[in-house]
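During the second half of the funding period, the structural biology subgroup turned its attention to how the target accommodates small molecules. The most pressing case was fe (ii) ion, which had performed well in the primary screen but for which no bound structure existed. We therefore specified the complex as follows and requested a full 3D prediction, including the ligand pose.
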Amino acid sequence: MMRLNRRDFLKSTGVTILGSALPFGLVKVAFGANNPGQKFTFGYISDAHIQHLGGPKFVRNWDRGLIRAVQEANLLSPRPDFFFFGGDLAQLGTKEEIDHGLEIMSKLQGKVNYVMGEHDYYFDLGKYWESKLGPHYYSFDHKGVHFVVLNSILTHDEWTFKKWPTPMDRMLAMARLDNPEGSPFLVGKKQREWLKRDLAKVNKDVPVIVCSHSPLQKIYKGWNFWTDDAEQVLALLKPFKKVTVIYGHVHQVQYNQIGNISLHAVMATAWPWPYPKTYSQVKSYLPVLTVPMNRADPFFERDATGWQFIDWKTGHADMHYQLPNNKDRGVAYNRKTGRPEDTRYQDPKKRIPSQKHF
Ligand SMILES: [Fe+2]
Ligand SMILES: [Fe+2]
């Protein structure tokens, strides 16, 4: 397979090679005899955080991040089968922000499946988002893969419906990273029961891809890099041979393998969050398999933002992270070790040394 970095990719007049060098026979075996499956590609844009400043004004930097992702994704050739938007389209969930974000997204060529983020939800509890985009959780089948989209950013009713002075006070409480007035995210019982019924119809050989906003694993509670009922959701996915979970919210490259389940984070178009393990005062649960994002310039907020496309080849996702201001990243499933691995920086000697704090 020919490898292109982003600059080559842009120079190549929109022609890039997304195919795999793997023989079809291996693909067939990996999918199981009854479900030969097909290779395909899909794109993933997430965490745009479109922010309204009043009147016609929006935060320009967040607009530009999303516009650039859409423009670059439009150059992909061959075209991906469809896209996901991974949540946090808006910053404070208002009609103006959602409309403005959808206006930018309308330029993306191809179908987009939307995931609910907490910044989209906690102002009006997802009502405007739902009126524009449909149900908060749903599933569909595509080329032998069962896709599930979950709303993983719900929380306990006592918190959601407590006496907030205004809906915006509730939104602002959930919008903060360190979240002192926040509440842990939940998929919740109602949606878990729906998921159980949905998965009951699916053959256990069929690969499953689950898209959520928050990680369906417990990384760091202080920043809500966490879903409180993650184990209960993963338990429903355990009987399936090949499961991939893709999540936004953390604004950084992460990957992990829990049993049969590969987990991948996607980058934001707005800004990168630091890795929680740099927050040394509090115990972190960052999956040990993740190689921290190499950032050439930690003071430049565009460094370590971007978008991604995903090659679906042999029942596993190969993640291609496109970073406009840094080297592109790749995370692919390694059949020998049985887990996703960084294809570039797994070797510590090849990493860009992290910033020194004084
Ligand atoms: Fe976000
Ligand atoms: Fe989020």
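Two results from this model are relevant to the next phase. The two ends are 43 Å apart (CA to CA). The longest strand covers residues 40-45.
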